[in-house]
Automatic annotation (TrEMBL):
Belongs to the ATPase delta chain family. This protein is part of the stalk that links CF(0) to CF(1). It either transmits conformational changes from CF(0) to CF(1) or is implicated in proton conduction. F(1)F(0) ATP synthase produces ATP from ADP in the presence of a proton or sodium gradient. F-type ATPases consist of two structural domains, F(1) containing the extramembraneous catalytic core and F(0) containing the membrane proton channel, linked together by a central stalk and a peripheral stalk. During catalysis, ATP synthesis in the catalytic domain of F(1) is coupled via a rotary mechanism of the central stalk subunits to proton translocation. Its main location: membrane. It comes from the Bacteria. SUPFAM superfamilies: N-terminal domain of the delta subunit of the F1F0-ATP synthase. This is ATP synthase subunit delta. Keywords: ATP synthesis, Cell membrane, CF(1), Hydrogen ion transport, Ion transport, Membrane, Transport. It is a peripheral membrane protein. It is found in: Cell membrane; Membrane. It comes from Namhaeicola litoreus. Pfam families: OSCP. The gene is atpH. PROSITE patterns: ATPASE_DELTA (PS00389).
Length: 185
């Protein structure tokens, strides 16, 4: 993906500066907010990556959206990205910062893919179970995939647990293919 290396460098530098200033937690929350906001708003994403829109307008819009809610260091990072004509990687910087921060804190992200959004109760149960399995601090990220018939797919690190209806049916189909007594169509 274009800009990933630069985003990683900006994220590392931001985290080091945030730790020096004692605001790493605040900046982490800001980066989550930035990532979520850009991810949920196509118009904002298009504005940020558009080479036609002037830097001044981008700065004004970002200040309006995030100015009062974010730490001064986060605002400085956004200004620096605008000055260096790299504001198009803002979302990547936010994602990379969160990944590095979680790694340093020992927090792992469990990605749960379901057909419908998780309830708070179910999310708490998943958190508890995954925490006992991995022995690590876990945060849950819920992805919605309406094409799933039911069940869930849990991905923690490089491990995946597929308990979806689609996955179970595929496993069943694989077992039937090895059976000589079942006629092949």
């Amino acid at each position: 993906m274009k800009g990933t290396r630069a985003a990683l460098r900006y994220a590392k530098a931001t985290l080091n500066l945030a730790k020096d200033r004692g605001v790493a937690d605040n900046v982490y929350n800001d980066m989550l907010l930035i990532d979520q906001t850009i991810d949920e708003n196509k118009e904002l994403k298009n504005l940020i990556v558009s080479p036609i829109v002037k830097s001044g307008l981008k700065s004004k819009v970002l200040t309006e959206i995030f100015g009062k809610k974010t730490d001064p260091l986060t605002q400085d990072v956004m200004r620096l990205l605008i000055e260096n004509n790299r504001i198009d990687i803002l979302e990547l910087v936010a994602k990379q910062y969160a990944i590095i921060y979680d790694f340093i804190k020992g927090v792992e992200v469990a990605q749960v893919t379901t057909a419908v959004p998780l309830t708070k109760d179910l999310e708490a149960k998943i958190l508890k179970k995954v925490k006992t399995i991995t022995g690590k601090e876990i945060s849950v990220e819920n992805k919605i995939d309406p094409s799933m018939l039911g069940g869930f797919i849990l991905r923690v690190g490089d491990k995946q647990y597929d308990s979806s209806v689609k996955g179970i049916l595929n496993n069943l189909l694989d077992k039937f293919e090895d059976n000589f007594y079942v006629q092949k169509f």
